[in-house]
Amino acid sequence: LLPDEFIPVAEQTGLIEPVTEWLLATALAQLVDWEDSAPDLTMAVNISARTLQRPDFPGVVKAALARAGVQPHRLLLEVTETALITDPLRAAGVLRALAATGVVLSLDDFGSGYTSLGQLRHLPVTELKIDKSFVLAMTASPCDAAIVRSVIELGHNLGMRVVAEGVENLETLEAVTALGCDFAQGFWFSKPRLATEMREWLDEHWLPPAPPPARRSISLPVAQRQG
User: Under DSSP, is residue 142 helix (H, G, I), strand (E, B) or coil?
Assistant: First the structure.
């Protein structure tokens, strides 16, 4: 089953909380297992709207990191704009507490939700991910290209790094690179793979970060992939 099929059911029934805790533990254990192939790799985990309303969730994350022996900055938590709608004040408080643990926060699918600019400037997020609906169409649609350009400029002006989602061909990669996007993600680099297949892929493709040290995510740096 794809996530879109079972995540809403898990949220409605309350099962999303144990699922999220299991996912955190599994993802961090996998990160440790890949250490020899990609020593500076960051693991990204998506966080649901319901989880973002849990005041105790930052403590759950901190405990999971301690058990796995993983430094906080190597965990990237992705939240969607829609996850902030139910109770924006509580969600913002949970995000601030998460940021205080040292994990990296990313606003996923940006442009598809309802985040106001006033709200965005107060969120402790390090990264904006441009919704793939704009990236997929940008080479054929001047309007979508303008939106992508604007989000990149907005993110950079707010001191954030920007990721283009939905990069599925070289033309799109070149387009987002020309606009100064920091990272790219999509089928152009790889389709989803089983964890058992990733070690070989990492051995072949992983490039260590160039100095000065910078946080790295599973989304491959545009400049490195072009090289």
Answer: helix
CA distances to 88, 93, 161 from 84, rounded to whole Å, are 5, 11, 20
Q: What is the pLDDT of residue 71?
A: 95
How far apart, in whole angstroms, are the C-alpha atoms of residue 69 and residue 75? Answer: 12
CB atoms within 10 A of CB 84: 23
**pLDDT at position 116, please?**
63
What span, in angstroms and rounded, lies between the C-alpha atoms of 168 and 76? Answer: 23
Q: Report pTM.
A: 0.85
| % the chain with pLDDT above 90 | 57
Q: What angle do CA 129, 178, 210 make, to 5 degrees?
A: 75
Closest CA to 70 of 102, 105, 95, 112: 102
* Size of the chain in residues: 227
Q: Which phi and psi angles does 76 have, rounded to 5°?
A: -110, 120
Among 98, 104, 181, residue whose Cα is nearest residue 138: 181
> How many other CB atoms sit within 10 Å of the CB of residue 221?
18
24, 43 Cβ separation under 8 angstroms = no
The dihedral sign for the CA sequence 9, 13, 17, 21:
negative
| Residue 182: partners with Cβ closer than 8 Å, 6 or more residues away | 161, 162, 163, 221, 222
Q: Which two tokens stand for residue 120?
A: 């965005």
Side chain identity at residue 68, one-letter code: A
In whole angstroms, what is the distance from residue 198 CA to residue 106 CA? Answer: 23
Q: How far apart are CA 216 and CA 33, in angstroms?
A: 17
